[in-house]
Amino acid sequence: MKGNPVKGAGYLLRGFSMMPEPGIRRFVLIPLLINIVLFSGAIWLLINEFDGWVNYWLSKLPQWLSFLDWLLWPLFAALVLISVYYGFSMVANLIAAPFNGFLSEKVEKMRTGAVMADEGWKGLLAMIPRSLQRELAKMAYYLPRLFLLLIFSFIPVVNVVAPFLWFLFGAWMMAIQYCDYPMDNNNVSFKQMKLLLAESRLTSLGFGALVQVGMMIPVINLIMMPAAVIGATLYWTDEHTQSSLIIR
Questions:
Q1: Residue 19 in 3-state DSSP?
Q2: Which of 95, 176, 179, 203 stands 20 to 30 A from 169 (CA)?
């Protein structure tokens, strides 16, 4: 596989460093607020409902399997955490998609000096239908693979590699999620976008892996979304704009 995971992770760190810059600071605010509100909601939901959900699923087991409670509790707990995490992430990405696309456009303009019409809120509103359509395409790609991985996680013996597969899958999906914003702004199709990321797969996975880890760290996860959008845009401008895979 081509690419450099350290270089990929570096794009996210550069994204963090650019967040306070005056030219893009105001475009960071709305994705940041959306992330804070939704992740705060997810934390509140877990604090209040976690035990109830896990115990509900355990209560559905036949009585003769009750001796396995000690083994199945962590599995059901992991399932609840995964469901809440990915569920809230999808909602956050769906709501924030137009704002993330707008942020990516401004970062690319600063980075490349490209002349883009400054349409303000009118331009943002025009992005909404296209952004939502693209998010639905990502969900159509993501959900079947998520369900297959869930099934795989419950198959005895082979499920020992499930944590490793979950991490790789999460890293790949984080790369797709955030790198899609600058590529969609430049009319790169969803299929082309996946090919571009696969062209430097290790770089893409390095970027996505650090985003995924950051999403799991309290406080850091609240500011991860805008940093990841900026980092993904830098990845696009530095490595993909001249790719031969892009159909122009």
A1: coil
A2: 95
pTM here is: 0.81
What pLDDT score was predicted for residue 92? 80
133 contact partners, CB below 8 Å, separation of at least 6: none
DSSP state of 118: -
**Closest-CA residue to 112 (of 204, 245, 233):** 233
Boundaries of every domain in the chain: 5-239
| Token pair of 4 as six digits | 């450099």
Name residues whose C-beta falls within 8 Å of residue 38's C-beta, 6 or more positions apart in sequence.
88, 91, 92, 95
Q: Which two tokens stand for residue 182?
A: 């600058």
Dihedral sign of CA atoms 158, 164, 167, 171 in order = negative
CA 48 to chain centre: 25
C-alpha to C-alpha distance for 109 and 105, rounded to whole angstroms: 6
Alpha helices by DSSP H, 160-200: 162-185, 190-199
Cα 201 to Cα 5: distance, rounded to the nearest angstrom? 8
3-state helix, strand, coil in the chain (%, to 5): 85, 0, 15
Residue 221 CB neighbours (<10 A): 20
9 near 208, Cβ under 8 Å?
no
Q: Rounded mean pLDDT of the chain?
A: 82
| Separation between Cα atoms, residue 112 and residue 237, nearest integer Å | 7
